[in-house]
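Hi P.,

Sorry for the delay on this. The queue was packed all week, but I finally got your sequence through. Input first:
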Amino acid sequence: MDEVNESSFDTKGVKKRFMFVNRRAPYGTIYALEILEMVLVSAAFEQHAAIVFMDDGVYQIKKGHDTTTLGMKNFSPTYGVIEMEKEDADEDPDLDMVWRIIVEKESMEARGLAPDDFVIGVEVMGAEELSELMNAQDVVISA
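Then the structure:
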């Protein structure tokens, strides 16, 4: 059997533009938590990331989750880590990493929400502009 050469796993200098699209409500399925975990992994590898919330996915970052009746842990505070990673990427000149946290305008408005309703700071973007941004990504993961 061939030995695996360590250099074959060298990812230094490899940069991809990832878009993580959150379309589902935060509870009832594992999708929201799985996307959140993928986003955090991308930070470990200092990849560019656009984290998008649209459709019922906007509820993932809405303030005031009460999961006691569901018997599940409220993981919405974990999104604060994403906001911190974005701030680090914005402020640290040694990090070659661009992060954007985006809410689709139409989804937000259709649910009667505003940017102040979210647990993290967001960039609001219309569907047409978001579509253009999506086309510019190397990898799009949607759930």
